[in-house]
Amino acid sequence: MADEPTDAPEPEEPAPNPSRSEPTAAAAPARVRQRRRISRVWLIPIVAVLLGAWMVVTALRDRGPEISIVFPSAEGIEAGETKIRVLNVEVGVVEQVRLVGDLESVVVTARLDKDATRLLREDTQFWVVTARIGTRGISGLGTLLYGGYIELAPGTGRRGRRSFVGLAEPPVTPAGAPGLHLTLQSDRAGSIGTGDPILYKSYPVGRIESARFDPETQQMQYRAFIEAPYDELVTSVTRFWNTSGISLELSADGIQIDTGSLESMIFGGVAMGLPEGMKPGDPVTPGETFALYNDYASVLARPYRFSKEYVVRFGESVRGVRPGAPVEYRGIPVGHVERLLIEELAKEGLHGESTEIPLLIRLEPGRLELSDSERGLDRIAQVIENGVSNGLRATLETGNLITGSQYVAIDFHETAPEASMGRFAGRPTIPTSPSGLAGIQQQIVTLLEQLNELPLEGAVVEATDTLEALRTLVGSRDVQELPGSVEATLADLRAALSSVSAGSPLQQQLGTAVNELDQTLVSLRSLLETLESQPNALLFNRRLSADPRPPAGLGGP
Amino acid sequence: MSEATAPVALPVGDDARPVFPDGTAAAAGFACCHVCRKLAPPQLEDCPRCGAHLHVRKPESLQRTAALLATAAVLYIPANVFPIMTTTQLGVAEPSTILGGVVLLMEHGSWAVASIIFVASVLVPIGKLMSLTWLCYSVWSVHPTSHYERTVLYRVTEWVGRWSMTDVFVVAILVALIQLRGVMQIEAGPAAIAFGAVVILTMLAAEAFDPRLIWDQLYTEGDLQEEMLG
């Protein structure tokens, strides 16, 4: 068989060739096949590597975003195990749990699915779902069996956020829910806590989201959420008060029991509404701060939000003036006393007779039917200014004689000396006049002084002399005889009177004379009557003839 | 006509044909059919008895071995990185890799099982990869190691390779048996496929290697000297 020459490195069959027993290849031509230097078997590893690379690339490309969440503790969170869910659909898994350097919190690194990227927004919230027992019931029992997970609540803000701070507890209201967020401030913690309802006419319209005590301002700060559409009920004059528990009022009309809802009775709640007789005000901006009153009575007592501060300085004792005492204009409450400015007084020193005690008062424009707003404050400032130049002064008056409490009265005093408003401790002052009681005291003092100046000694001496003379007079003989002569005169008088008394002859004669006179007058009267009808009766006969009458039928033309 | 890749230092005859050492069937002009084992001249191309393709040495032996070993090496990485099985107990899923499983078993105190798994799934595949690679290299570079020892190494490698499938069988049996959904459930992970592929590829690589190549290198420099010296 012929050996076909091939490429140089190709080995050929060995030279020594034993005789073959089968004459097979003699006729068939030898097939020439070019042998590849590199076998096709290398395709296998190449394909394997390419496949692997493609899988890696795809996995990297389809990998979702990596996020970091800071939690206060890693309870219920396990690296590589804990899932992240949205509405119970798994969207990610926790990869790593690490302590933060200052050992205050843990950082959880998690990777989400790619299609969960759009859920990561500015206000996306994360919290660990575990079994919880709270005022609103038991939740998350399933996690006892199946392990805890992290719940994601997508927000509505800007996308692209990758590092978050996890919540310690599930949020009271879902982020992005339509409604109004407000801040309530109170100086008493009361019984209000996170999750407590906000009631409007006993209907829940919102929730308290968080409660925090601020040691700087010594106030409790609550974040409240009023859900739509009830957020339209909140205006600038809306009041919030604590309606926890039961309120009991005993009055002449009987007992009045007031409660909120059952939930607020047991757990606490906040009520909101308009005080009696007030008109709704301006709309409210989100995040505005409102005061939280301790009960409805406080709301009625201080129904106005805006007030202007003034200082009044009294030269007399301010004993009996308590914070909260009313400021009245002719009996109409226009404000209240805030407090005594002790620090400012201490600064001036308790020296000299010109030290006046400064009181801080607040005038509320709402009480004068000026609007309860900034505008109202300006108006009231104007009113006060004009008034002061016309004699408006502040005085201290007694409110209750028994308790000795006093209040501040503002009124026009025509006789007040000229004065103008000044400034004290950063606030405008209203000039003061001495109070009514102080005036009386003043007058009494003046009276006493005058009394003091009276020449009493001389008067007493004169009186003594007069008495002496009087005694002498009374003791004299003429005076003593006086009663005797008086008596004699009286006896004569009595005798004379008896002669004219009833039944005496004098009286009888008089009676007869009167009767005769009476009769005379009667006859005279008839004469007069005749004269009246016939004036010529004195001359002629009294009888009158009838007027002549012409006979009938006689005469005529 | 397909021959083994010409080793570098194999002495060639005048016409540049490789010279097989004396005493080999190839030197005597015979090729052994790999199906029916009949000796026949390789020029015939096909075995005169069974018709299978005749070749003196396994075709492209070193290349094939090397390629399959490379693939097995590449696949060995995911076999160890990905979990080979996932145990789900009361809803809590716990995946475990090969080495992770070994450690877990050791911690549980099952030293015997752990050592078996370790040997079968870690030592043996790595050992196979390394020994076959070295054998290929030794043939390719005419390394002067003892031919006998290399042949023994090859035999051991080829024989022990199949036992690596132990781990795959373990996973298969566990997955088949433990399927109480909600209480306890075992699922195979992607590493099971990768590891199975590694074992098969190393077995194919061992199969592709022609140990006769070791003995074709009887004519090393040293041997030549010895022969020439007598």
Would you give an account of this structure?
The complex is a heterodimer of chains A (557) and B (230). In chain A, strands 23-24-20-21-22-19-26-25 form an eight-stranded mixed sheet. In chain A, strands 5-8-2-3-4-1-9 form a seven-stranded mixed sheet, with no helix packed on it. A seven-stranded mixed beta barrel of chain A has the order 10-13-12-11-17-14-18. Chain A has ten helices and 26 strands. Chain A is an alpha+beta fold. In chain B, the strands form two sheets. A four-stranded antiparallel sheet of chain B has the order 4-3-6-5. A two-stranded antiparallel sheet of chain B has the order 1-2. Residues 1-10 of chain B have low confidence and may be disordered. Chain B has helices at 61-81, 98-108, 111-140, 147-160, 165-177, 190-208, 212-216, 221-229; strands spanning 31-32, 39-40, 85-89, 92-96, 179-180, 184-188. Chain B contains eight helices and six strands. In chain B, helix 1 (61-81) packs antiparallel against helix 3, helix 1 runs antiparallel to helix 6 (190-208) and helix 2 (98-108) packs antiparallel against helix 3. The relative contact order of chain B is 0.17. Chain B is elongated. Classes of the chains: A alpha+beta (557), B alpha+beta (230). Chain A binds chain B through residues 1, 8-18, 20, 22, 24-25, 30-31, 33, 35, 38-39, 41-42, 44-45, 48-49, 52, 81, 145-147, and chain B through 1-3, 6, 13, 15-20, 26-29, 41-45, 48, 60, 63-64, 67-68, 70-71, 74-75, 77-78, 90-94.
What sequence of helices (H) and strands (E) makes up the elements of chain B? EEHEEHHHHEEHHH
Largest interface: A-B, 33 and 37 residues
Structural class of chain A: alpha+beta
Strand content bin of chain A:
25-35%
